[in-house]
Structures are given as structure tokens and as C-alpha cells.
Amino acid sequence: MSRTDAILARLSRLHPKLIDLSLDRMLPLLEKFGNPQDHLPPVIHVAGTNAKGSTIAYLRAFLEAAGKTVHVYNSPHLVRFNERIRLAGTLVDTKRLDAALEETEAMNAGAGITFFEVTTVTAFKLFAETPADFLLLETGMGGTYDTTNVVKHPLGTIITPIDYDHQGFLGNTLGEIASNKAGILKRGARAVMGLQQDEARKVLARQAHRLGITPLWQGEDFHGGEQDGRLVYQDETGLLDLPPPALAGPHQFDNAALAIAAARHFELPVNEPALAEGLRRVSWPARMQPLRTGRLRDVLPPGHELWLDGGHNAHGAAALARTIAAMPHKPLVMIMGMMKTRQPEDFLAPFRDLHPALVYPVTIPGEANAHDGEYIAAHARAMGFSAHARRDVTEALTDAAALADARVLICGSLYLAGDVLAKNGTLPD
């Protein structure tokens, strides 16, 4: 076990629950550090169900193309915890991360606090002591009581599309979930809203009105989409004809448009050439990521495609299915693993019309809360899929190699995606 893993293991034992939404435990700890959350570069705070990471990836790409330095806070990580904390453009160095985690551990002095709370305090400390032009801050879950929601005066807030997810913590209706996400809105901070269903939109609009905020709404105040292979964006200030986003999938045109709207509405120092360059260079691991080299890719013969996507809820599955449907036809093999917090039917439903050649479910390695591959296979067969559980991803890839020119999609969980990246030798940077 590495020093980082040992520290994180100790921190994970400080509270009996992995998730216990509250700010009461971390505020005293932040105060011991001099409230670093009050000494950050301008913050753009992002909440929502899906597309948070992609939206942040675009904003980072735009700002860096404009020559700005950017902190980023994302979760969860895929392979290494370092991925959660990007300092002025670079993932935090392991030695510095370990020292900061141990300092936070010592300052906490054994008090009850959740893993995400204590690591977020560490991130704020690192962000405050490292110069940068901007901080892109992603919520972990929800908004109102999310550990990131201690920043009192963000430059701007973004709420990406809201759908059903984490109902046990955020509420059982879209309205309840939206009310929680709306907790990041702050009086005096501009806001941009992604495409929303009516129930969620009403809640977001009501909360914005209470705070005196007039948000920009995607699909109403700004529009962006694919035209002749280009991204055409339009708002009240005019039209932009831009290159397509480097991230694959029709939904990425929506995500890119949302980030462009935020850049313009928040008056970020980003011009049209920086937007164009950012769209060309943007990257976001395990989001319809092609794996063209690596140990796992080598299992497949030339002519096969290998794609990796960490989408894990119904909304993400629908976007993924649309992406596959827009590609030239090839036999589709789905290698999928899922956590028990999701059900296979919800994820597989959008793929019914794509007629996958095969579904190979696997049990996610090292995850006690993962569905057994046989469980996923049984549910897939009940839906009409040809499904056969496999011992691991390598065995599934070996079987997929027997097909001619197949498109292989590994999907269903960020935990599975992280395991695949590690085994393939493709570490996010």
C-alpha cells in the first residue's frame, strides 16, 4: 500500500458513513486553517447530475488556451487520488498531496468527519496557497450541503442537466433533487443553466428569483449545436462558427455550448480563437474515450474499436446510446459492470434499438458494492439481450476479438473505467 493510500484509508475511518451531507463537521476544520475557502482565486461552481466534468473540462481548455492558470476540483478519481486536485494546470504532486493530507489529519485530531469532507478541506488549503487565475469547482453530490458549498462569493455558478440520481440522499422527485442542486446559487453571482426538464427548471427559476438572479437558460437565451460538422453557437451578442469539440458524442455539442455561454456570461478573458483552440484540445478521461494503444487494447485485433465510458445512470446511458447510434455501423459488444446503487435495466434500456451483438457483464474488481456479473447478465437476458457474464475484462475482450471488426464499448461505471485505465496503462494526466 502506498503512503497516499494508507493516509486515505485512515481518513475513511473517521466517520461511519461514506456520505453524510452536512457542513457542520468541516466548517470548524476550515476555521483552524484560517478559512482557505475565503482566499481562493475567482471560483466557478458547477452542480448538476450529468456533464459537470465535461463542462469543467471545456472551461479549463478555454482558459488555458487564453494563457490563464486554472485550479480544478473533480471527483471521483479514476486511477489515482491526485486526479481530484489540479493546481495551476497540473495534477497535485504526490509528495505535496501526502504532506497536505497528513497536515489536515493532524489538525482534525481524530474528530468525526467524512472522507469527502476532510479531503475537500485539504483541497481548499492547497488551492488557497497556490497562485492561479481561476478555480473550477465541481460538487461531489447535490449542492446545498455539498462539501464544496462553503464558497460564499463565487464568480459564477453553473447547473448542468438534472436527472434522477442519488435519490436516497437528494430526494425522490426531480423537484427535490433540483432544490438541492440549487443550493449553490448565490446572491450576486451570475448563473447559467443547462438544458432542464420542466419540473427541475421551475424549482431552479424560483430559487434564482428569490436570490435576485436572472440566469441564462440553454435552449432559450443561448443555443449551440452541430451544423455541417461545426459547432454553431448563438446568444444575444451574436453567432460563433467554431470547430467541433474533441470529445465524442452529440451531447458534447450541448456541453460545449453550456461552457461557452458561461465563459461569455461570466466575462472570462477568453476570445473566439481561445474558444476554438479549447474545443480542439479538450480532454476528459473515460467519457467516450477511444483506447488506441495499451495492454488491454492489444487483446483486440486491428480493425476493432475500443471505447471507454464511465457514464453510470439512465441519463448518461441515453447520451452514450445516441453517440453509438451516430457512428458508422459495426457489430457492438458491450462490456459492462455496475454498482448496486444502479439497476442494469435503467442503463441498458437506451441500447435496445442498437441490437448489440453481445453483452459481456463483469464484476467490478475490488468493489464490494458491485453487482455480480451474473446478476447483470440475467437482467440483460430478460430484456432480450444476448448476455454472458465473463470473469474479467480481459476474458471479455478475448471473446470479442473473435468477431469481425467489432466496436467494443466498456461502460456502466466510473469504478470499472478506472480499473480499465490502470490495467491498460493509460493514466489520466
TrEMBL record:
Pathway: Cofactor biosynthesis; tetrahydrofolylpolyglutamate biosynthesis; Cofactor biosynthesis; tetrahydrofolate biosynthesis; 7,8-dihydrofolate from 2-amino-4-hydroxy-6-hydroxymethyl-7,8-dihydropteridine diphosphate and 4-aminobenzoate: step 2/2. Coiled coil: none annotated. It catalyses: (6R)-5,10-methylenetetrahydrofolyl-(gamma-L-Glu)(n) + L-glutamate + ATP = (6R)-5,10-methylenetetrahydrofolyl-(gamma-L-Glu)(n+1) + ADP + phosphate + H(+); 7,8-dihydropteroate + L-glutamate + ATP = 7,8-dihydrofolate + ADP + phosphate + H(+); (6S)-5,6,7,8-tetrahydrofolyl-(gamma-L-Glu)(n) + L-glutamate + ATP = (6S)-5,6,7,8-tetrahydrofolyl-(gamma-L-Glu)(n+1) + ADP + phosphate + H(+); 10-formyltetrahydrofolyl-(gamma-L-Glu)(n) + L-glutamate + ATP = 10-formyltetrahydrofolyl-(gamma-L-Glu)(n+1) + ADP + phosphate + H(+). Residues 306-413 form the Mur ligase C-terminal domain. Its EC number is 6.3.2.12, 6.3.2.17. GO terms for molecular function: ATP binding; dihydrofolate synthase activity; metal ion binding; tetrahydrofolylpolyglutamate synthase activity. It comes from the Bacteria. Its cofactor is Mg(2+). InterPro entries: Folylpolyglutamate_synth, Folylpolyglutamate_synth_CS, Mur-like_cat_sf, Mur_ligase_C, Mur_ligase_C_dom_sf. GO terms for biological process: folic acid biosynthetic process. Keywords: ATP-binding, Folate biosynthesis, Ligase, Magnesium, Metal-binding, Nucleotide-binding. Functions in two distinct reactions of the de novo folate biosynthetic pathway. Catalyzes the addition of a glutamate residue to dihydropteroate (7,8-dihydropteroate or H2Pte) to form dihydrofolate (7,8-dihydrofolate monoglutamate or H2Pte-Glu). Also catalyzes successive additions of L-glutamate to tetrahydrofolate or 10-formyltetrahydrofolate or 5,10-methylenetetrahydrofolate, leading to folylpolyglutamate derivatives. NCBIfam families: folC. This is Dihydrofolate synthase/folylpolyglutamate synthase. It comes from Devosia oryzisoli.
